[in-house]
């Protein structure tokens, strides 16, 4: 025969209820930590995605600006080539002691100097006066001392460029 269990002692009942409440509290704590961790992970993921989007937008903007500048770079390169060719042609007519200094300058500045000082450089160019070691004429390239170059630069107001 199936007999129903007898009444549960009150102390045992209180003990089981306390255990149940403790387990429920622990379960709530674990669920809260899991929810907090999940929310933190979702926030981190959203923040990272926002940062990636912001970076992608900045990169796209930079690429757009770079594309807009490419024609100017090409034009500047062509202009610089033209300036250098013009400078080389004009340097052929300049005395060597000035040419050496002008070649140390930035090309546009050298052309500007030539333009500003055209009246000082104009007229007939004197023939070479390098007599060489034995008094004979030589076509050897002239070497100028740094002091001489500094004096000429000062006299003609030429600023050196490295």
Name its key features.
162 residues; 70% helix
Largest sheet: number of strands, sense, barrel closure: none
Q: How many strands in all? A: 0
Q: Give the overall silhouette.
A: rod-shaped
Unreliable residue stretches: none
Subunit arrangement of the protein: single chain
Range of strand content: under 5%
Query: Termini, distance in Å?
Result: 113 Å
- Structural class determined from secondary elements: mainly alpha
Number of helices in the DSSP assignment: 5
Quick check: average pLDDT? 86
* Gyration radius, in Å: 44 Å
| Percentage of residues assigned to helices | 55-70%
Order of helices and strands: HHHHH
Question: What can you see in these coordinates?
Answer:
This protein has five helices and no strands. It has 162 residues and is mostly helical.
Give me a quick take on this structure.
By secondary structure, the chain is mostly helical.
Please describe the topology of this protein.
Layout: H1 10-91, H2 96-102, H3 107-116, H4 118-121, H5 146-155
Helix pairs in contact: 1-3, 2-5
